[in-house]
Specification:
alpha/beta, 21 helices, 23 strands, about 35% helix
Length: about 700
């Protein structure tokens, strides 16, 4: 049996936390079994005591041999002095180059010149000993809203892309719906339009509909491609297009029919690709070739995965052993990989067009995209990035106010040591790809940059493992600077001391959900006291809508699912009734308007909540389309899969009616009154 001391020492080296405080503030110790499972996940084999001792010796020897740190985080554009007393030679090679940009002999220090942002290499040679230091050079902060837009305060709309619908689109919401919605919403003074993640779900992953369970976060969901924005050529494609336009009978007015959509949408995409392959113009062919060359091997791997999944199933862990490693030479059978690269080309072009249209229509930031916390363990990202992925564990969360039973998300986790050894390539690439498509990026469960809760497959209790928080934050700042992207960190849940301050120091905006903003006595915190460097909203996709909160719809579901009994339900409803009364007074005693434009009236509570948010000091206010429409059901009920219609509810308002939506007009006027219409502010400044 391996000694407890050896296990604890190895766990400390690996960054496994010995304990954490749970929701009740009680310290939970990490068990021996958890330490063992998490160490194996990091690639440390522990079959016997000798192996543990040998692993310790290797780790300690490697650390003792180093003269300098493995990596340093440095502010870009400023010189940096590294103390080093040995008379060694050093040379600096910048990212993307193989030639040194500076070199010298160290005396008591190494003076590094100002560097642009990126991950560079410093090589130090002392006699026969040579070592490389990873230099993560980043701006001090990510761009602020004021940096990017010139405005201090904004507001925007969050909605579910899959729920959008229009006369031209009988299936799930697509990128053309998004483009048209951005035009309509910009007219109401919105500075951004937020949507659910649009990561690739997997061409053959028919049973997966949650946008937070992607196959790969670096690529896009082909189900949102607007097929009528791709010109058909052949008679076959024209016939399929006509059938797609007639596909309205099987679509519910309230819920998205994913199966029906796929049945019509996928054959049409294949036919459109066949048309392209047979008769693309030289210009079109050149554009597609340029896209593939720019995206490189990573795109080819993704397309290879999609092709192989058509032949061997969606879970790569069940494929023939030779195919379980991402070897491009083994891609044969199934779909043509070029088809999947073409799908990504189309999706990328359409999403970029939506962002360009949003900005052209007057949105200061444009699209607000959401980066999911991880990708499915059976999906393309986990397959392609195995050299950075932890083995035998899933990302999850301990019990908290979002889910008192805890959560296992069945998502792949980056192993800190593996990720660093690859210069954080996998993480950086995903962040970069998402930022280039938007003006505002929300990082879901941003706590994962600091520490991640891993749940072992062997049944051991979960435990936390620390990431190199400083390095990951620096990489976010690098990519935000390059793409001029504002960043929000979803910082709900159990947050360690100093975490939010570190985010703020990096220029990352906090995420305030009014439902969770409570005082110690349990009353709602006044929006006037919310932090300025944040985005505030009343609800999210995982919480009750405003109407659902008032009607205690979430409590109804808990009781329906036997999570609570009738007695507990009555108790919670009494408490909720007491919580709702103050919501109508959040904006003070100022009366709301009796009539909104076009005769609409927001409920007193809705008007009060949105006015209080508008008047608050927060930089950004997000209003849910669900709350504008008075929806009762939440988009997703955490802890359920099929029991609740998660990720299926369609919006009540067709895209072509958003421009004249009366409640939306009222909200827009309210936000403009409180100085959140960036376009109006710009017009006034220009007139002056």
């Amino acid at each position: 049996m391996i000694s407890d001391q050896a296990v604890r020492q190895l766990a400390a080296h690996a960054g496994i936390m010995p304990s954490y405080r749970n929701l009740a503030g009680i310290r939970q110790s990490t068990s021996r079994e958890t330490n063992m499972a998490l160490l194996r996940a990091c690639g440390i084999q522990l079959d016997n005591d000798a192996m543990a001792v040998e692993a310790l010796k290797r780790i300690e020897a490697a650390r003792s041999e180093r003269l300098l740190p493995e990596e340093l985080v440095i502010v870009s554009g400023k010189p940096f002095r590294l103390d080093f007393a040995n008379p060694a030679m050093w040379q600096l090679v910048l990212e993307g180059s193989s030639d040194p940009v500076a070199e010298d002999r160290a005396k008591d220090f190494i003076d590094l010149p100002p560097m642009s942002s990126g991950i560079h290499k410093l090589t130090v040679t002392d006699g026969g000993h040579s070592e490389v230091i990873r230099l993560i050079v980043a701006p001090a902060t990510a761009p602020s809203v004021a940096d990017v837009t010139g405005c201090e305060r904004l507001w925007g709309i969050n909605l579910a892309l899959y729920g959008l619908h229009s006369k031209r689109n009988p299936g799930i919401g697509d990128y053309e719906d998004l483009e048209q919605a951005s035009t309509a919403l910009a007219a109401h003074g919105t500075g951004f339009l937020g949507i659910n993640p649009v990561h690739a779900i997997g061409w053959n992953s028919d049973e997966v509909i949650s946008p937070y369970s992607p196959s790969h976060r670096g690529y896009l969901n082909a189900s949102h491609i607007a097929v009528d924005r791709i010109a058909p050529v052949s008679d076959r494609t024209l016939a399929l297009m006509a059938a797609w336009k007639e596909n309205t009978g099987g679509v519910s007015q309230t819920l998205v029919d994913y199966e029906s959509h796929a049945r019509h949408h996928r054959p049409l995409l294949r036919a459109l690709y066949d048309d392209f392959a047979a008769s693309a113009s030289p210009e079109q062919a050149a554009q597609f070739k340029l896209f593939c060359e720019r995206e490189g091997e990573a795109l080819r791997r993704f397309a290879g995965f999609e092709s192989l999944s058509d032949l061997h199933g969606v879970d790569w862990r069940t494929w023939p052993v030779p195919l379980q490693q991402p070897n491009l030479d083994d891609v044969s059978g199934g779909d043509n990989p070029d088809f999947h690269m073409w799908l990504q080309w189309q999706a990328e072009n359409q999403l970029q067009a939506a962002q360009q249209q949003a900005r052209s229509a007057g949105m200061a930031l444009g699209l607000y995209l959401d980066l999911a916390v991880g990708a499915r363990r059976d999906g393309a990202e986990a397959w392609a990035e195995q050299d950075s992925i932890a083995e035998g564990v899933s990302i999850g969360a301990p019990p908290d106010h979002l889910s008192p039973a805890g959560q296992n998300w069945n998502l792949a986790a980056f192993a800190p040591s593996k990720l660093a050894a690859n210069d954080y390539r996998a993480f950086r690439t995903i962040v970069s790809r998402n930022m280039r498509r938007c003006g505002l990026l929300r990082i879901d469960h941003v706590l994962g940059l600091n520490r991640c809760f891993w749940i072992p497959d062997d049944g051991s209790p979960g435990g936390y493992i620390k990431h190199n928080f400083g390095a990951l934050l620096a990489i976010v700042r690098i990519e935000a600077e390059r793409n001029r992207t504002v960043v929000i960190g979803e910082d709900l849940g159990l947050v360690p001391g100093g975490f939010r301050s570190a985010l703020k120091d990096s220029g990352i905006y906090s995420y305030s959900v009014l439902q969770y903003e409570k005082t110690r006595l349990g009353s709602f915190r006044k929006p006037a006291r919310l932090p300025a460097h944040s985005l505030a909203c009343f609800a999210t996709h995982d919480t009750p809508t405003l109407e659902g909160f008032v009607k205690a719809r979430d409590i109804d579901w808990w009781q329906k699912l036997d999570w609570i009994d009738e007695r507990e339900g009555r108790k919670l409803r009494r408490r909720r009734k007491g919580e709702c009364a103050p919501l109508g007074k959040l904006a003070g005693n100022r009366p709301g308007k009796d009539k909104a434009p076009n005769g609409a009236t927001l409920t007193p509570i809705s008007h009060s909540v949105h006015e209080a948010l508008a008047a608050s000091p927060v930089c950004m206010v997000s209003v849910q389309q669900d709350d504008i429409e008075g929806q009762t059901e939440t988009q997703n009920l955490p802890g359920t899969i099929n029991e609740h219609p998660n990720w299926q509810r369609r919006s009540l308002t067709p895209v072509d009616q958003l421009l004249r939506h009366p409640e939306l007009e009222e909200i827009g006027q309210l936000m403009t009154e409180y100085g959140r219409n960036c376009r109006m502010i710009a017009k006034k400044e220009k007139a002056i």
